[in-house]
Predict the 3D structure of the following.
Amino acid sequence: MSCQSCSTKDGSPGGCKNNGTCGTDSCNKLTVFDWLSNMSLPNGEKPFDWVEVRYKNGRKLYYHNAEALTLSIGDIVATQAKAGHDIGMVTLTGELVRVQMKRKNISQKPEDVLKIYRKASQKDIDIWQVARDKEEAMKVRARQFAIDLKLQMKISDIEFQGDASKATFYYTAEERVDFRELIKVFAREFRTRIEMKQVGFRQEASRLGGIGSCGRELCCSTWLTDFRSVSTSAARYQQLSLNPQKLAGQCGKLKCCLNYELDTYLDALKSFPKTEIKLRTEKGTAVCQKTDIFKGHMWYAYEGEWMNWHKITTKQANEIISINKKNEKVASLEEYALDVEQEVAVEFENVVGQDSLTRFDNPKSNNKRKNNRRRKSNKPAQAKGNKPNPKTPNPKQKQEQGAKRNNRPANSNKKSARPNNRPANKKGKPTTGKAPEAKSNPNQKNTKPANTNTAPRKKKPNNRRKPQANKNASKEE
């Protein structure tokens, strides 16, 4: 859970710019929500004088507020340490601290009590920030020193004390390691007191954090506080394949989530007979091959016929076992297997559509000119076909049109009724409505045919060569 003002980018909040140390303290892992903060105490009751303080990587300790300081969540305080003082952040106050201390069995004896000195000053915070900036570079050098000394250990993290007087090195190792020479090298190089602390692989994963195979943050680094032992029997009860690569987490151990649903599986398996019990029938002895916990089914196969499995319910299996305890045998498993409902095969339809799967086999041409040429070449071929033209008259219509023409008067034709006042040609013949055909002129480009219904347009004179057609046209005008 993060506060509303934060927007994560590259692993760091971009809103408050405090990198997980904001006043609300809701960006940190393993943070307890104080749901009693808005409730007032009854009359005469004093607030609980213990507070919870968090350090690097979610490490939390509980301190006694002996000075009765006014503390709230997000305050930076100087706390008691074995030597010097440490700097931490208050994460919880009030009655919920009492609940957490009772849950974690924190002792309140005077010899075990740690106190809060004061609220941290600006000088304390500056020293603390400078010390924390050195941790990453020191970790790289410390790992190299351990490799040079050929020690079978891995330094996972370094944490400075608030006053920069001590550095704690957290490491993991499968066996016991003699690091006395390594401490001397660290003290000589880093000029500070050194403390070596071994942690388990699960604790290392919880401190460093990460993303699990489920796509979410690790449980141990977000909300899981206690680590229970996980065995392979948990995977067997849940009928999981014993593949170490799938069952192992970031720490290299079995995943903690294998224990989450284990109790539910154990309750469901109470109604199942043991798989080691064999069913005796007149046809032969049957051995359990598989169980389905969710549906309550079991599969049995006869000895010698391992390929033929018979599915029965748990009630039927318990019934056969009770009959066998009376030294009696059932006829066969087929009688019980017939009572099991057969699974209905669902035929799925093509929801994609009615299009053919080969509709994309013929690639489309990307050249538009070729496509345009094909379209133009297809047009006259269609016109020359045997399709009837609706404008062409039938034979009967031709006869009727011929009879009408013969019965028309002489002046009925519009073309002949118009007077022809146009000048005659050299041969003495009157010109018709059509313009004379112009000869091809090599100097002129993109010549268009003359329109039969309109008079020819005026053309610019060409001084180089005047064809005969142009002379006739000028006389007509």
Notes: DSSP finds 15 helices and 14 strands in the chain. Residues 368-383 form the longest helix (16 residues). The CA atoms of residues 73 and 91 lie 5 Å apart.
